[in-house]
Target: THAP-type domain-containing protein
Amino acid sequence: MPAICCAVGCNNSRTRNPGLIFYSLPTEKSRRDKWLAAIRRDHWAPTSHSLLCSEHFVSGKISLQLRSS
Ligand SMILES: [Zn+2]
Model:
């Protein structure tokens, strides 16, 4: 299973972006819902392998705005 960011429009992966940190989704529902809102993928359920890269975090907190870069 390659480590690829699951956010829409983000193709960062551990191999292509070794400087990024990849986080697995939290198990706690309230935090997990925030992540899912930020990821904004329709008809998609995260698996235990789903990861989100550090591009989507501001000051250690998940940002609801994905960076445009
Ligand atoms: Zn990402």
